[in-house]
Amino acid sequence: MIIDLDQTTFVDSSILGVLVGGLRRARERDVPFGLVLGDQAHPAIRRIFELTGLHDVFPIFPTLAQARAGLAGRGGAA
Amino acid sequence: MTTPVADVSLVVPAVPDSIAVIRQTVSGICEALGADSRTVGDIKLAATEACTNAVLHAYASGQGGTIEIDAYAGHDELRLLVRDRGVGMTPAPMAEGLGLGLPLIAALTTTLTITEPDDGGTEVSMTFALRETTSAS
Looking at the predicted structure, is the pLDDT value of residue A78 above 60? Predict the structure, then answer.
């Protein structure tokens, strides 16, 4: 599963909770899970991941193509 | 002691739809004060987190209630008070979510104070620097 956040303008802790829940469930099912957060993403989105430390928790890719390539063949441990 | 008069006061129902109104109001205040976009984003996020806490936790389901937001503008800082009249701070071990709301607010503010006023509810006082300090670090 890939969540593309490049066009997202707002994320708060509730949304982070949903994303962490998705990551957890994906890992339980051995499904690859990653986020797209590229250079064009809203700075506030990148900032909330940095503030919460979650940028080290999620596999984050700069483009959708790189996410697809990076997650191909991977299980939920990504 | 005289209570200072807020520059902007807003009272909204403690429902999810109010969060967008609060965000728009806070955004307008910040822009009027000349804050840069990153600072505006930080303040909107902190206000969102504080008000979301009030919506989710202050009032029993179906009880209804309000959120009061007071903004005090200074030359280089903005203070926001977010007040509800609900049950006050209570442990919520079964609550959903990551518990990131208050840590996020703490990371975004220069000062953060959470109190339970004598007449009930919870009051979150947040102060934000409106401009980056220019001193070398």
Answer: no
Nearest by CB to residue B100, choosing from A13, A43, A47, is: A13
Please give the share of chain B, as a percent, with pLDDT higher than 90. 66
Q: Is B69 helix (H, G, I), strand (E, B) or coil?
A: strand
Return the pLDDT at B137.
Answer: 42
pTM, full prediction: 0.84
Pairing of strands A34-36, A2-4: parallel
Phi-psi bin for B115: left (phi > 0), alpha (psi -120 to 50), beta?
beta
Q: Is the ipTM of this complex over 0.95?
A: no
Mutation for B interface: A12, A18, A54, A55, most B CBs within 10 A = A12
Domains in chain B (CATH in brackets) are 8-91+98-129 (3.30.565.10)
Do residue B49 and residue A52 have CB atoms under 8 angstroms apart? no
**Are the C-beta atoms of B18 and B55 separated by less than 8 Å?**
yes
> From edge to edge, which strands make up the β-sheet containing B77-84?
B8-13, B66-73, B77-84, B122-129, B111-115
Residue A57 CA to residue A70 CA, distance in Å, equals 16
Tell which of B40, B42, B45 to mutate to test the A interface (max A CBs under 10 Å): B45
